[in-house]
Design brief:
The longest helix is centred in the first third of the chain and has 29 residues, at 6-34. This protein has 137 residues and is mostly helical. Helix content is 77%, strand content 5%.
Length: 137
Amino acid sequence: MPRSSLLGQIVRYLVTGGLAFVVDFGLFALCLYKFGWHYLLANFVGLVAGLAFNYALSITWVFSECKRVLENKKTAEFGIFAVVGFAGVGINQLLMFLMVGRLEWNEMISKMVAAILVLMWNFGARKLMLFRGRKNA
């Protein structure tokens, strides 16, 4: 699958998102069950670690063939990437609060549902704001 194709980017983003989710989910479970932290704090720690991992793979592998809108302004690029990510964190936290806190769903099931929904938000927003077109186009 070509790196420049949208389908290729989606597949690589799913792999990257999956790996970032392993980082996120692993830290979430560790903080929740081993350290006994509140589920929202544990969720936040996992999400931040997953965000950093996702950024590194997104610029080097997922969108490597895309023209990066702010490639020469790396601080601004990471800032927007992080803002999208933190909006995703907010969406994730709200979903966790609703599913666990209000609907009394299992924390782990809720985490998986929230992660899938936020993954779609993150890809779409980042693609539109930061990684448009092809490098040589």
